[in-house]
Amino acid sequence: MKKDSDGLEVRQRIIDIYAKSGFDSIDPGDLRGRMRWMGLYTQRAQGIPGGKTAVLEPEELEDSYFMMRVRIDGGQLTSDALRVIGGISTEFGRDVADVTDRQNVQYHWIRIEDVPEIWRRLESVGLSTMEACGDVPRVMLGCPLAGILEDEVLDATDVIAETVAKYVGNPEFSNLPRKWKTSMSGCVDHCTEPEIDDVSFVGVVNGAGEAGYDLQVGGGLSTNPKFAQRIGVFVRPDQVTDVWAACTAVFRDYGYRRQRNRARIKFLMADWGPEKFRQVLQDEYLQEQLPDGPAPAPAKHDQRDHVGVAKQKDGANAVGFALRTGRISGSLLTRIADLADEYGAGRIRTTTQQKLVILDVPDERVEDLVAALAEHDLQVRPSAFRRGTMACTGLEFCKLAIVETKQHAQDLYAELEKRLPDFDVPIGINVNGCPNSCARFQTADIGFKGSMVRDANGEMVEGFQVHLGGHLGVEATFGRKFRGHKVTKVETADYCERVLRGFLDRRTAGESFAAYVARADEDWLL
């Protein structure tokens, strides 16, 4: 499919042919392949149960509507841009939108006839859906508070912008073996989760006191999770774009294309190791040697979501707040844009935890904004469960999903708030509809991976395989599985309550849930 026509070429066919002739006119290679290069996937037809996901053909699973992903590099938005995003959702997407855990916004119910007009509106405020999906460089993650906080190692805003401008939409990298996920950040909390990206630039200070980046390659989740490996080099800010392009070229040229399920950089890194990767990178692509560099300092805080009120270095405040597992309406996004103008300077950020941040709020306006957001159930000081729960798109719209996730995750955190109202430590509960880990179940304290499960009556029902104790940072580890332990969907709240009460009873002073799981007897966790 990619040899027949570059994925980027589908844009013109959408404008010239498909938007005019309708869904039935779309070439199958474009529909299920190249349209991803422009941020479009067909969405799941309504009413098809999860048990049919692995049985039906793609054309049997898909609807004549699209999911559309808007890429928001670095998570940076103006109020005008967010107003356009919200308006598109309201007018063309049945007022549904999802803020993702990769700083994007996704629409549903998009008709092919409306795509050119949506693109026109997005491009009028500097946004795009180009390469938001597909075997290409996906959205480039950045700290939502880059340039804002006093304690950051350095501000990666410019290096992200330079790299995006030079290479997104560039045919040089429009046919990679598979997706290519990038993060660039100097955040002391490592909020872009560099441990699980394909290529990451992590802020460090070298022995001479110079701020730059540690290069890490080969992270990724899905069915074969791997943590990124340090290459061991120090990258100056003015080298980032060239080093990123060289890493991407290594993946393009050496990545495993023969088997799609091994076509991520993590498999190449597992075979090569960081020493060989560094040698090939320097000798064949950069034609120069990079100096050795230090490892990044550990993340300053366990929670990386920038929720709450944080003091900016200019004296104003950044106000981060939790949505309902990323699900929101276009109307409410428009309202948030208005609040950003009213209480701040019209700057909004998306996070890698399905959250939003309004910047530039004066001290005397913070509590008024907190109250205004709360009117719409947008929580600046959420419960541990509300703050720590994420969910992927799920069965509602995704053709890969086995179970429904968004509403279930919302019901779950609401139930846990009632049952454990005084729970006082951070807890990540990530709900995934399938094994692909779009909501990162392996790195959560409690990770739920969607599957069909037998209930007490022997019936196959929606449920989850449980992963416990995943965490990033120092001694990062993926969640533990226990004898393939599974729970039905209706059992998830009971299960979480049981395990969390055990944690509260047995924990030591200051012990995190992940540390508790690492030492727990298996019967404490079943």
From TrEMBL:
Pfam families named among the record's database cross-references: NIR_SIR, NIR_SIR_ferr
Nitrite/Sulfite reductase ferredoxin-like domain mapped to chain residues: 63-124, 311-375
The reaction(s) this protein catalyses: hydrogen sulfide + 6 oxidized [2Fe-2S]-[ferredoxin] + 3 H2O = sulfite + 6 reduced [2Fe-2S]-[ferredoxin] + 7 H(+)
Keyword Transferase part of the UniProt annotation: no
Co-factor(s): [4Fe-4S] cluster
Keyword annotations of the record: 4Fe-4S, Heme, Iron, Iron-sulfur, Metal-binding, Oxidoreductase, Thioether bond
Biased composition annotated in UniProt, kind: Basic and acidic residues: 299-308
Family: Belongs to the nitrite and sulfite reductase 4Fe-4S domain family.
UniProt protein name: assimilatory sulfite reductase (ferredoxin)
